[in-house]
């Protein structure tokens, strides 16, 4: 039964879609076989077992895996090592089963059973990519992305790299907004296919339970949407009496609604790879094939998952760094605007038209110290509006731990407030003592290009009497005009506003505390009085405040551990002045203590420091490179948390050290990945902060190449400072140089 009446649509149980138990479908895709093993006995199998392995279902149930797969294959399963989730590449192995070559993946179900999934190994080149080269190709794309100049370039590399690796007709990179709506931000496709780049897709395309699965199972292949499924026999797990949880299964059968969705798009095969940030889904790489069934091998899928994870991390780190740089530019400009206003009303000093341009706002208001000032477009009764917004969370997105809030539709947040003028959006920044900084944006009628009308979804009533939405019937570009809202506030907008908040708080402090040298004194007191000089080694360092003597959050540190090894640390806390110097001092002391407590183990120390930063310094972002040098061997074990890589220099040749880039401090999730390098006799390692190379009039890539070329001429730190940082710099700069003895 199909319902077309709009009144009936209002009665649809939308929760029915999100309640569908897609993790327990009771079936798998037919490209492979599934065995459920409990207490070393096969308790369930997919009913295609006779077709693919020539073993009857009845002959497999109740028997050990060896009776189904053969002794050699069963011994290679290592079921005791299987676990729930994790990278596909960690679970896949090639085994010989009944004379044939198979790729086998093992997982743990939520009930403790082992899932054994086997797929025939395709002939070399059958899926377009020899398995022996797929990881090399993936690493090649990652190297390209490491040199990318923007997040958008990383997106493009992801789409192109995944398409070359997998052979799909179309590969798209989706980015989700805070409401889980998606937009195609990069695309690689066959030339004859209609482009989807730039199209938007509603959050309902991926219901909540599907998003949860994507956050657990990072890659998902549907090899043929037209193929029947293979049911599990028996349907229920004998021990639990319930359907077996196939959350981590690579063969898990697909929801009928999603299959119809793909059919409506003309897609015969698809693959999805999750893009995650600290375990949360921020985007997805979607692969579509229209020419027919398509089955990249397990090895290709594992390499693609590795590639996507690396690209996701690089995109997240690059975006965070770009946002931090933008916030620093805003803060630097505001300092210039208010640099000569240490007296007089602070509100009037900040409320200037130039700040509107920087913050991409139409109006702003600052209320501080009993006075208020506004510039640009603000609501007629701006003080009352801001007060009301601080008292309600309705219609707001709380963007950070300070209570900063964004509103895209003020009429929704304040339905009974009356005249808001032309203002539709607001970004409200709480300040100490009940004061407020607020930005405003005017209403903008926006045209949004959807991949099909998001409301054009048929509704059917099942045998249970519940009405359910089906997938929309067309995916042709559909334009929607959105009114009553402002341009949405981006993460960059929020972080820039937070930078203004930090600066206003700093200015308040400066006006109420005459000791203007407090931050500089604190910063200098954090630098080591002496640097260790192991036998034959040379360790040197240099720090310079920004223009005007302003200090930031840069620091260097080096000290000898009980083992005789030498700690080497360079870090940078975002921001300037006393807040940054105070945060820097705490992080510096924490890193010292934790390196000592962990006997020089860098990764555990940095993991512990990240936990402390999240608890004691919420909202603070810092990058850090930390290493421990063994002077006897020249080996340096190191970890990089969002920091620029160091240079290795010898005999007039400079190269970038290879590092594994983790997220900055305050954003890590678990233990960071580390690396190891070895300094040969006569080699030097130069650590530095971005203040040495960052300039608004040149790209970071250009400046880094300038630094590399300069170090091939000289390693004199004073000369490097003058050549790179110049006489006037918006940021402080730090360098730490370690040189091995020439043996």
TrEMBL record:
SMART domains: GAF, PP2C_SIG
An example Gene Ontology molecular-function term: photoreceptor activity
Lineage: Bacteria, Bacillati, Actinomycetota, Actinomycetes, Micrococcales
Stretches assigned to the Phytochrome chromophore attachment site domain: 150-309
Name of this protein: SpoIIE family protein phosphatase
A Gene Ontology biological process term: detection of visible light
InterPro entries: Bact_Sigma-Reg, GAF, GAF-like_dom_sf, PAS-like_dom_sf, PAS_2, Phyto_chromo_attachment, Phytochrome, Phytochrome_cen-reg
Domain of life: Bacteria
Keywords: Chromophore, Hydrolase, Photoreceptor protein, Receptor, Sensory transduction
PROSITE patterns in the cross-refs: PHYTOCHROME_2 (PS50046)
Protein's organism: Georgenia thermotolerans
């Amino acid at each position: 039964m199909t319902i077309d009446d709009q009144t009936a649509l209002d009665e649809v149980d939308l929760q029915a879609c999100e309640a569908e138990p897609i993790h327990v479908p009771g079936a798998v895709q037919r490209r492979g076989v599934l065995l459920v093993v409990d207490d070393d006995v096969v308790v369930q199998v997919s009913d295609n077992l006779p077709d693919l392995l020539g073993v009857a279902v009845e002959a497999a149930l109740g028997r050990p895996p060896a009776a189904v797969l053969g002794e050699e294959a069963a011994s290679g399963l290592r079921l005791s090592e299987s676990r729930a989730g994790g990278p596909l590449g960690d679970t896949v192995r090639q085994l010989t089963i009944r004379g044939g070559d198979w790729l086998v993946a093992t997982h743990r179900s939520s009930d403790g059973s082992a899932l054994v999934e086997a797929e025939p190994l395709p002939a070399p080149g059958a899926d377009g990519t020899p398995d022996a080269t797929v990881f090399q190709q993936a690493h090649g794309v990652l190297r390209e992305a490491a040199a990318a100049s923007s997040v958008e370039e990383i997106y493009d590399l992801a789409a192109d790299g995944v398409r070359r690796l997998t052979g799909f007709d179309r590969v798209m990179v989706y980015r989700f907004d805070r409401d889980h709506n998606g937009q195609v931000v990069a695309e690689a496709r066959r030339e004859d296919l209609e482009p989807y780049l730039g199209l938007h897709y509603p959050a309902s395309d991926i219901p909540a339970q599907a998003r949860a699965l994507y956050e657990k199972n990072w890659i998902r292949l549907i090899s043929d949407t037209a193929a029947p499924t293979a049911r599990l026999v028996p349907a229920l797990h004998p021990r639990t009496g319930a359907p077996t949880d196939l959350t981590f299964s690579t063969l898990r059968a697909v929801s009928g609604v999603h299959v119809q969705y793909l059919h409506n798009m003309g897609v015969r095969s698809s693959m999805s790879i999750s893009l995650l940030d600290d375990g949360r889904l921020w985007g997805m790489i979607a692969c579509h094939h229209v020419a027919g069934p398509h089955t990249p091998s397990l090895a290709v899928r594992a390499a693609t998952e590795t590639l996507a994870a690396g690209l996701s991390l690089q995109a997240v780190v690059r975006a965070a760094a770009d946002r931090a740089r933008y916030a620093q530019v805003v803060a630097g400009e505001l300092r210039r605007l208010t640099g000569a206003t240490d007296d007089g009303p602070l509100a009037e000093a900040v409320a200037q038209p130039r700040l509107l341009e920087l913050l991409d706002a139409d109006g702003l208001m600052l209320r501080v110290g009993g006075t208020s000032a506004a510039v640009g477009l603000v609501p007629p009764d701006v003080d009352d509006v801001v007060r009301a917004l601080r008292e309600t969370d309705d219609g707001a997105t709380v963007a950070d731990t300070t209570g900063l809030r964004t509103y895209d539709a003020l009429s929704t947040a304040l339905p009974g407030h009356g005249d808001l003028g032309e203002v539709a959006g607001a970004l409200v920044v709480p300040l100490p003592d009940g004061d407020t900084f607020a930005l405003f944006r005017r209403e903008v009628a926006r045209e949004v290009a959807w991949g099909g009308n998001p409301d054009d979804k048929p509704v059917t009533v099942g045998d249970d009497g519940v009405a359910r939405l089906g997938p929309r019937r067309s995916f042709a570009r559909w334009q929607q005009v959105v009114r009553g809202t402002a341009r949405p506030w981006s993460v960059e907008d929020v972080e820039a506003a937070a930078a203004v908040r930090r600066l206003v708080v700093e200015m308040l402090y400066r006006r109420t505390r005459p000791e203007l040298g407090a931050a500089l004194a604190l910063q200098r007191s954090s630098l080591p009085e002496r640097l260790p000089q192991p036998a034959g080694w040379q360790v040197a360092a240099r720090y310079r405040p920004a223009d005007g003597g302003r200090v930031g959050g840069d620091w260097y540190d080096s000290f000898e551990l009980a083992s005789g090894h030498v700690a080497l640390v360079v870090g940078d806390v975002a921001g300037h002045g006393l807040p940054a110097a105070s945060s820097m001092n705490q992080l510096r002391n924490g890193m010292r203590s934790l390196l000592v407590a962990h006997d020089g183990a860098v990764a555990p120390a940095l993991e512990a420091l990240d936990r402390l930063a999240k608890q004691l310094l919420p909202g603070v972002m810092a990058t850090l490179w930390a290493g421990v040098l063994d002077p006897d061997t020249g080996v340096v074990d190191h970890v990089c948390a969002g920091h620029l890589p160091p240079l290795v220099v010898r005999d007039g040749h400079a190269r970038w050290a290879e590092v594994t880039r983790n997220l900055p401090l305050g954003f890590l999730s678990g233990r960071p990945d580390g690396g190891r390098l070895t300094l040969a006799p006569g080699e030097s390692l130069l650590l530095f902060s971005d203040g040495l190379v960052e300039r608004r009039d040149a790209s970071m890539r250009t400046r880094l190449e300038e630094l590399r070329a300069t170090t091939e001429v000289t390693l004199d730190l004073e000369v490097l400072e003058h050549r790179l940082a110049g006489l006037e710099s918006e940021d402080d700069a730090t360098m730490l140089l370690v040189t091995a003895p020439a043996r």
